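Appendix B, Record 12. Input sequence as logged:
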Amino acid sequence: MILTVTPNTALDVTYTVDGLRPDGVHRVREVRSRAGGKGINVARVLHALGADVRAVATAGGATGSAVAADLGAAGVPAELVPIAGETRRTTTVLGDDGSVTLLNEPGPALSAAEWRLLADAVRRHAPEVLVCSGSLPPGAPSGAYASLLTGTSVLDTSGAALLAGLAARPAVVKPNAEELREVTGLDDPVAAAGELRRAGAGAVVVSLGADGLLAVTGSGTWHATPSTALRGNSTGAGDAVVAALALGLSRREAWPGILRRAVALSGAAVLGPLAGDIDLAHYEREVDLVAVRVVSG
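Logged structural output:
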């Protein structure tokens, strides 16, 4: 079983507009909302693929109740840890011009007792692969993820939380190029990924946007690229990559195959209307078209 952990859950609200203009008045054509946060998005993708997955997340207040209701309606297996604070909202504004604008609330702080409940839930499920994703709630120590990571794990976060998480020796970390540069100060992604591996990561998979994925691992380095550039909602693309990584680890697949699925799922997420959605038809077509090039190894 794959377990995803989302300590800073959100209700994702998506507005569709003609285009976003500073200081302008916008008429929203469509409003959609659903349970979100990176770990929940990962679980939603894995559930769509038929994988054995469960999401552990926090939920509080009326917004937390909306998160619980949405997960129940979607059939995504989940354990929600109750918290006193109100679950945050994130807002995505999609323009017909292809623009994607995100407004992310910080979320409520978790008490020490709430953190213990979250950690207890993770330990109780004893997953085959553990995924810790997203930002930490305000006030959380940077080492909070390191205290949760166990066994075969994937860590998808940034900044101090990413660096502190390396102490738990995650099997894979998945920064994007900007996050990787931020924590290492290096412009060369291969060299920067090597720094994270030396600090404790088993493998580093770097999201390069339209240029695909770079994987720096103990068995080699690969660059995987999609067959075509896509336009759509990119907010869930990284979460789809994490879903593919977790699935590949659970099946003990070789890296080229994992990367093909990850790039194909990333594109399928861009074509999905909301974060956590995937275009399964695109995924099935694209997975054999992804090019994987050996960089070294």
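The mean pLDDT is 94.
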